[in-house]
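User: Could you check the structure of this?
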Amino acid sequence: MDDLIKFETELFNLQRGDSHMAPHKPILVLAIFDLIYDGSITENKIPLNEALIQKFKEYYKRFRVRSNQGDIGKPFYHLSNEPFYYLKWIKNADAENVKRNTSIKNLNQHIEYAYLNDELFDLLKSEINLLYLKHRILQCYFEAESAQYFTPDDMSKQLIIDLEREVKYGVVNKNPRLVPIRNSMFRKEVLKLYNYACPVSGMALSIGNICLLEACHIFQFSKSEKDIVTNGIALAPNLHRAYDNHFITIENDYRVKVSPHIRENSSSVFNLQQFHNIKIKLPAAKEFWPEKQYLEMHQEKFHKING
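Assistant: Sure, the predicted structure tokens are below.
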């Protein structure tokens, strides 16, 4: 939360020229956020390419900015005066030349890409953090247009409202009203990471936008208070119940271990023993794999119950 507040403060205090009204920097930030959100930017490298230029122009036209021209070159360069944004210079680049000439062509001849503070970029990997900061930038710099052009779904709206309350008033996770809201976001992100399929059985249960898979806490939330994706796994409903009741666990090598004491119909297609020693299908990015400390907490109770 402290990092979110820090970057929100920095985004609220952009240096915007003598008049303090130039819109270019906040528009560039919004364009960058959108490209991160839609997956066009997946690593902390922001090239001055056609996608960024077009997104910048879209916002410029959308807000009907009358003063100045919609030139992305100057904000792309001058945003580096802010503490969260940097430029990766090409070897032997002429910085003084760029200072005098911020045309797109000249910038691309001297600058490889821009990049954000690593902590900020990590925060933006979370959809709710990104939407929250975008919402606050619009409120700060484009208040009249923010309601018209920022329309997240109802769940995201509620999450933004509650996150805003946390930042302003210090509301913490222990507030019981926030728990189901946070769990909904947790569910959304976990299911997405596992591609809406159970990593144990391979079963995918969905109709349209409705997915019947469940996001399971590896170590129970009531004790860990860790609503983070590395403490989560997507499971079919029957396997979720089996996991919560320690009929099964997941070892440190990500293989399933089934209790030898369960009584079941072994001829049933739903029997649990078929999953014993199966390695689960993990998210593509290793940073989102289940953390072993949480796996070990569940394993400890599994072995205590099952011997």
